[in-house]
Fold this sequence. Notes:
- This protein is of the alpha+beta class.
- It has one domain (8-187).
- It contains six helices and seven strands; from the N terminus they run H-H-H-E-E-H-E-E-H-E-E-E-H.
- Strands 1, 2, 3, 4, 5, 6 and 7 form a seven-stranded antiparallel beta sheet that branches.
- It is globular and about 40 Å long.
Amino acid sequence: MLKLKGNLDMFNEIMEHHAEHRRKLVTAYDQSKDVGLAPRHLKYRPLSKNDFERMFEIIDTVQPILNYDHLSGGCLYVHTQLKEIFARNGYLSEIIFGDVIVNGNAHMGCDLAELQRQLHIGPDSSVQKVHCWLMLENYQFFDATLFRDLSDGVYAAELYGYGMTKLDGYVFHYEPILAGCDFIEKTKLTC
Length: 191
């Protein structure tokens, strides 16, 4: 049963066609509040094909500056930068932390207990054991780094959708665990 704390009925816009994705987002927001995070509640806004084309143009413009095609594990750096750049161009988003199941295997192997540990003591090694991506105003995930990581920067592709997508023989299932930029501050992760 979903707890629906606060204004989490914001996800009702996607309930009919993306119920499982909505359930995972509600759980991530609930868990975030339980551990003391304050994720941003985005007002639903449908995004058109033109919006996505504009976002891809923005990425094409800033990618040479951010230079992340061959930056392994750069999800935190890239998505915090894109969040700010998108906002300056009229697109709001929230950072989501979790894992991605790629062809049946966990990409990072993290869970709520691991993220709570990081919140409690901060990361105890230079390896960040979490993946992050953006949630857009239409509640789709938007990931600019994972496919680049898997192809060692050979292929540039942004992944987006409602919880699951496929590309070049890969199947990606996004598993949100926590939401909100304050996870970065509380874990002292740096970009």
